[in-house]
Fold these 2 entries.
Entry 1:
Amino acid sequence: MDEKARILQLRDELHQHNYRYYVENAPVISDQEFDFLMHELQDLEARHPELFDANSPTQRVGSDLNNEFETVVHTRPMLSLGNTYNRDEVADFWQRVSEGLMGAPFQICCELKFDGLSISLHYEEGRLVRAVTRGDGVQGDDVTANVRTIRSIPLQLPAGGDWPREFEIRGEVLMPWSSFDRLNKEREEAGEPLFANPRNAASGTLKSKNSSTVAQRGLDAYLYYLLGDGIPGDGHYQNLEAAAKWGFQVSKNMKLANSLEEVYEYIDYWDEGRKKLPVATDGVVLKVNSLAQQKSLGMTAKSPRWAIAYKFQAEQAETTLRQVVFQVGRTGAVTPVANMDPVQLAGTQVRRATLHNADVMASLDLHVGDHVLVEKGGEIIPKIVGKAETDNSKFKIQNSKFKSEEGAGEQCSIFNVQSSISFVDRCPVCGSKLVRYEGEAAHYCPNDTGCPPLILGRIEHFISRKAMNITSLGPETVDDYFHRGLIHDAADLYELRVKSEELRVKNNSNNSEDDINPDGSSLGSGADESLFSDALAPKLNPVNASFSKILASIEESKKVPFERVLFAIGIRFVGEIAAKTLARYYGSMDKVAEASKESLMQINGIGEVIADSVIGYFANPVNRAFVERLRGYGLQMEIGEQQKQAQSDKLQGQSVVISGVFQHHSRDEYKALIEQHGGKNVGSISAKTSFVLAGDNMGPAKLEKAQKLGIRIMSEDEFLSLIKSEE
Ligand code: IVH
């Protein structure tokens, strides 16, 4: 067999194995055999680039190329469904359908409502050609490259199937609980923000700019709607059965109902049964089964008359409120958290719930001992949504039956019952008076140089990737160092090498004089003794691989450009962009520190809030001393020579869209160049766009839009000579 034929054969075989593994859950070969065939195909494809096929099973791993999503108009609008939480409205729906069909018999296809994001897949000649998100229902994002990595979506349907030459199938992309839990665990370990629920995680993933990220995240898809001319028959249920035969993952839990009672049975069964499913569902969808009847019922402006979604109530449980504590987060935001008697809710035991902020707390009017309703909605942390109807806590307390967990006296309990629990006005950690910024719901502790959670937050911000990029140092280690007193602020990181060296020397000498130091302390006398325990010594040994990596990245951070240092020092409201603007405008830390409010406010993009914050930051001697220490350790306190020279205002006031793939610089580099020359990089083309910096393969939709609006398309070379030209 020649290599071309073998490639085709392998692709075909691997498509089938994928289907058996990811859709049927019934593989017929081992993972190892699968990998073996995959490697063979990869090798052959590498030798025959001319036979590249985006739908080859090898493409499931995605690529590191940046995806830029093209907007695509849906062939048929993607409507949403009317929603109800009310069982009577299900009966109303049945009645409306019956009347609409003038009493003719009908069947309702009952399905699970998957909680992900809808996707439209287009197939031509059995091949996946396009995958588009719902978007606004009229047009969505072309996410084909990302969707290709979802293994339960067939890229090529098996030959000989009775699928139409061209059709569309819609369904839901979701992240199974197992992938979601794994992803959040990884993110927690990496100190990254967690996804609130599988739907957010799936949607964030599908919109990822990098399809290899998508490939690793374990997305899945269920298909539930077949459209197009020439689809098999009149029955929606039967059509999906056919689609399942072609290789699509279709829910096995659909059911045809012949009466309203059967619909209710389905709802009741799955309200409980869904808790055991591997994916999140939030209700059931009821659809008239006959396509002809669907057509005769038609649509309202927003949704079809032939279908409705019945949403399950978020799971709730009833328990007793015992105490409200106030937590101070890393940003200084103070969150009220309820401690309650433990109760089972959505598969886990819950004893804490958030009360969000002062306004929510006030509206709930809570007292210790209240019976409350707790709900697990889309968020990770359960919340108290109100008082339970059975709340008779006051009666109980008046009879002195209630005792708080801390054993607080009866008097205190009665006092708490009479007045509702109020929000604190001082920081529970450091005692500072809390502030509430205009337009924000949260109260904040303003003591960012003296309150431990805020200091930790500042250190974490300082080391983060977009700031000083000392990412070999994770939040847990920072916490550990801080609590042991090794570091008190981010500047102390630059002393770690010296400190660890001292520790090593002292530890070595102690080890050789065991009897002199019987208590096991490893350092000399003084306060440091308790900080540098023996347990810590090996960890802080520069020979220790992970510690030496930390030291290396701390050292490396001294080269980080000034604009990121300015971002890293944590001036409230000075984000990445404002820091860049300030750095480029003033050129040095000293100039920023000396700037007046008037001077700051005349800069494009710097408003009063930022200006006040910058002034306030440098007015605080603690902050000034911190910055001086950083200077002493060798951090960049002014923009680089090259940058000074490379700057101009040739693109002043211009909005530039970047599109396509480039030869000479990366997209990020072009973005930086545009900004260095006074321009602004914007995401989408509008009448205000000055020009499009276009590389190869600029998306056709963008091109068309630019042409329509008469916007100049500039090539990479043209752009580079423009910014290099002498004025
Ligand atoms: S049918 C015209 N079936 O729920 C009918 N939708 O608001 C189109 N969904 O946007 C949808 N599971 O994202 C249908 N079995 C199912 C579904 C389902 C989840 C989602 C879908 C849609 C939304 C309805």
Entry 2:
Amino acid sequence: MVEMKRILFLTSNEGKLREAKHALEPWGYEIVSIVGGTNKVQLVEVQARDLVTVALSKIEQAESYVENAHQIDGVMVEDAGFFIDAHPNFPGVYSAHILESLGLEGILRLMRGRRERGAEFQSTIVLQIESERFVAQGSCRGRLSEEIRGDGGFGYDPLFIPEDGDGRTFAEMSIDEKKALSHRGHAMARLVTLLEDRG
Ligand code: ITT
């Protein structure tokens, strides 16, 4: 039996962790994390306009966590963002902060009466194995729903209807359905291709 490679995913977001495990474990990558207690992951998000810069800065901060982790083959970070067409670059790199301060209801209020409801999720994943770095990106176009729908997923999912779907929000889909359409699903698939090409 081929041994699973152990990847430490540095994230404080359990939804992202769940989806990373779901996407990568079938390919032979065991995803481990640091959760809770004094070991909680505290990555500083640099002020930058793009996800790649933020993700690369997160991987630079990974060293101290890797030193304390056991039998790790690689370390991974991801920066994701939600982008609303009607408000260029917003919330973008500030997605976590805006969701925390406005909540889903606040986002809906901001969009009340707006006909232009296009939106996009983006994801940038950086995986470091020894001195090799893999950067994989994915995006997903869609629109903001008129109301909060579904109790699956996490974050902005109850507001987002992907354009290649059937009208349900991400929060109304199974983890498999979301993976097939989502920014993270696409970025993870790209990452798997990069790893397979590496051999
Ligand atoms: P890290 O510890 O990994 O940085 P985070 O929650 O800060 O976790 P991001 O900066 O990558 O993660 O995400 C920005 C925000 O976008 C945050 O509020 C997430 O909950 C939300 N988000 C990311 N991916 C999402 C997805 O697939 N569906 C819904 N919301 C998502």
